[in-house]
HTH cro/C1-type domain-containing protein
Amino acid sequence: MLEEVAEQTEVNRTSLSKMQNPAMRHSTTTNAIDSLCKYFGCRVDELMVYVPDEE
């Protein structure tokens, strides 16, 4: 599935893998987020959630 998303959105497959894992603390671009929202037909708040650091 990641391969298809990467191909359709032009977001690197490695970046997509890192985005799936909050522990990776991956930084991405607004262009990638925009492309993913368009692909999935969703809003940003449906695509990602804020996960606060444990103190």
